[in-house]
Amino acid sequence: MAFSASPVETAVIAIQPGAPLPYNPAPSISALSPASAAVGGASQDVTIQGANLQSNSVVAINGTTHSSTLGTDGGLQITLTSSDLQQTADLLVTVTNPLPGGGTAEALFPVGSPTAPTPTITSLYPAAAIQSTPASTTVLQTEHSVVELFCGHNNCARPTAETSCGIFGWPGESRRTR
């Protein structure tokens, strides 16, 4: 028996391929700037540097999404809140690029006690000393402190365990000897 179809039943539908969905590469984190923050701060701006960071990347701190902005340098800028900085801990920073493709990159951001500034020597008095001097006091001045180094007997040129040497630190501190 032969089958006959109406014109509606015999229409051919041609499906043309459309534009492919964009493929998102997996992100990577190479640096956080600054590299850490002091505990108890009000807020802290942080720049995430890496590869394949995008404007649609999602940034989370310990699982909580934070808004981010893609900078002209290709880094993502975020702001840590006071609740992020309320206790000493390593914060888990994640950057996730969406599907298709995509992926997640992770880095740790330490929050801890503030660190003392690195001293820079601004002056030393006296600038020279004679080695055979029985005792000497040298004043070392830095940007952030004044330290007096005292060496006693044995003609020491610097504090060592075998001599009577002391370090005088911040004003009001007691003398420490080695």
Please explain how this structure is put together.
This protein is mainly β and about 180 residues long. The protein has two domains: about 30-110, Immunoglobulins (Immunoglobulin-like), CATH 2.60.40.10; about 120-175. It is about 0% helix and about 40% strand. The protein has strands spanning about 30-35, 35-40, 45-50, 60, 65, 70, 75-80, 90-95, 105-110, 120-125, 135-140, 145-150, 165-170, 175. It has a five-stranded mixed beta sheet, with no helix packed on it. A five-stranded antiparallel beta sheet has the order 10-11-12-13-14, with no helix packed on it. Residues about 155-178 have low confidence and may be disordered.
CA-based shape: rod-shaped
Indicate the radius of gyration in whole angstroms. Answer: 33 Å
Unreliable stretches covering 5 or more consecutive residues:
153-178
CATH class of the largest domain: Mainly Beta
Q: How does the major sheet shape up?
A: 5 strands, mixed
- Give the number of helices: 0
The name of the CATH topology of the largest domain is Immunoglobulin-like
- Round the mean pLDDT to the nearest integer and report it: 78
Query: By CATH's scheme, which homologous superfamily of the largest domain applies?
Result: Immunoglobulins
Going across the biggest sheet, name each strand in turn. Answer: 2-9-8-4-5
Secondary-structure element order, as H and E? EEEEEEEEEEEEEE
**Architecture of the largest domain in CATH?**
Sandwich
